[in-house]
Protein 1
Amino acid sequence: MSKRGFTKCSSGHFRFAVTDKDAKAAAAALTKIEALMQKTESYWTAKKANDGVALTKDARALASEAAAAAAKGSLADAGAGFEKMTAKCNACHELHLEKR
Ligand code: HEC
């Protein structure tokens, strides 16, 4: 995936935004992650990696929920959603899809 730097960047920005209590920046970072997961989903759909596709869908839904919470200024909920989302990201990394 050529967008990995972007992903790293977006999740990093989310963490900074939460530390700074900057709900707008947090919502923006989560929205970027959501869009990225949408692209990731198309990528793995084309490769017919169904387990990976299911995880991108989950990660995208959780990013979207967390973004909505951040947009409402509720950084605690956004942070909780972000942690849940990260579990999905990591679950997919454990699958080692890049070796298929
Ligand atoms: C469909 C499975 C899948 C999901 C879901 C997924 N990733 Fe990944 N991710 C991968 C694969 C496969 C690679 C390795 C790609 C490569 O080497 O080309 C990767 C690589 C990365 C890297 C680069 C790691 C490095 O050391 O260079 C980052 C950062 C990353 N993912 C973050 C995330 C985040 C954040 C999420 C959740 C929002 C996420 N990923 C969700 C499959 C996934």
Protein 2
Amino acid sequence: MDDAMRDIFARQGYVVVPDVLNQQQLDELNEVYDQHIEEREEIQSKGGTDKKIRFSIRGRDTYQTTDRHGNTYVGRRFWSQAYRDLIDNETMLPILEEILGDPSWGHAPAHMPAELRPLFRLDHDNIHYKPGRKPADGEDKGGTLHGGPESFHITCVYELKTVGPDDGGFGCVVGTHKPANEQKLLDVDGDWKRNWCDTQWTSQLPNWDEDVPVHRVFAKAGDCILFTEKLKHGTIPWAGSGERRTLFYKYVPFGMHHGDVAYDTNDPELTERQKRIVEFSPCWFNEPREDKDYSANPALTKLHPLTHMESDPSVLLSGMSPPHIRLTDKTRTMLSTSLG
Ligand SMILES: O=C(O)CCC(=O)C(=O)O
């Protein structure tokens, strides 16, 4: 990452990295996408006519394996050489290492030992598809704003088809990865989570604070939008006449739990580095979510001996928040007792 990119990412909370994928990579990724679209499941999204097409991972071609830590993997996502290569894309890899490994960005806990800092993990991936819109199609509602300064994961958004300025897709409220800017949004009266963007079908609240503008992020096929999940972001309704084909690869620092979708680390086609990136960490600086069942994943609860209740904020770049360290009450009591 050069200084200009670093500066943009620090200021905006996202940056568009141009030309990350070449035409051959795009062709290969799109070919697998084509096959899945043929078998697509159309799912009526909650409470509206908005048709989002998502891809089920628990479908007919899923299977189960267990990794070397005894964690269970069920599922199969878009998978081919080109998809595996996205795990450690050569342009994005050093950028991910820096942003997830240097605690000054507020993703890695400050107490993470230096040797673990380069060992970030692919936590999960998402696939968004929208067919091209025709004038007679019904409304598209888009999505609500989410994300917050204490989040610790970052996302590579790969565009497989060009997204134009008025098409929709990824949008965000610039600068809200920093708590002072987030507060400006929280202070806006009204349902700003839903009413954040002016489109054919949605409107922004009239009292929106101009200090925190919304960006509709457009990008060419092959570009990667890198954003921090600290940033308030969401889906702008799709109005493009062409398809939306977007891949989201979501990474966490070593030892941090988020969505914890497990990958098939036994796949012999994965390189050692890819395996390392998709494997669960052997120990953790935060604890699993209470809303998920981890009974098939015994290695997901082992805390790192240097776990602290909070991450030291003194290491942070100006205006950033430390990551939220989620710990159970029992662990907190144990840690405060051992601290004396
Ligand atoms: O680009 C989009 O549709 C927004 C995606 C999103 O909200 C997310 O990845 O959390």
Protein 3
Amino acid sequence: MTSADVRLVPSLSPSQHVAQHRYFHIVGGAVWEAAEPAAHDWNVHFVGMMGDVAVWAVDVPHGLDPADGAAIDLFSYHGRATEAEWLAAGRAVQLVEWSRTHKFCGRCGTATVLSESERSLRCPKCNLLAFPRLAPAMITLVTRGPDGPDQEVLLGRGVQWKVPMYSCLAGFVEPGETLEEAVVREVHEEVGVWVHDVRYVRSQPWPFPHSLMLGFRASYDHGDIVCDPSEIMDAQWFRRDEMPMIPSNISIARSLIDDWLLNN
Ligand SMILES: [Zn+2]
């Protein structure tokens, strides 16, 4: 196997055969890798196995920086790492951030302790368990018209984006709704149109800060584009031969768009 083929297998502790250890030091939200932890009294979380390599997350205490400024954020790390390394670094950041933000029980305020049998922080007084947070978010490529060169996709430009980039529509799933219902609701809320024929495509861990992106395709049903100005600056239908600037390949949005560009 080449290093590009090695997958990350998340787990609570290392497997029996470990050839090497890698330590992702989490400095703020940035990542710096070393063969040894920079200090042995800092909190460490096991991330998982990449082949026979055991990967750890080191929680660098606030205000300290063993990397002397060399730690890089996850966006920058993406271009330098394999897919497995990027997923491992994202998981490391999320585990550390989870432990940093659940030091005390949310019900009674007692200091929590790390469970040894599962990935949880437990309150020793009232037994409340806190698991790593995951926020499911759906992201949808909406098409209009029959397959072929005249088919269009609906892409929006977020109000926060500094560049004139257009992407798939996305939003968080609400308690009490299915993923498919979330797709229909979010598309309507953001750009005013109704969709049907919602189909799951693939997912992507998205550690900003703890999302799981669930990629969908959907078909246009009816309605005109009316953007929610608090979220979407502009939305338009685009043919393949008139595409705007689209996201980089770090995001599942790009793979949903590329699938459509290449496979119809
Ligand atoms: Zn408690």
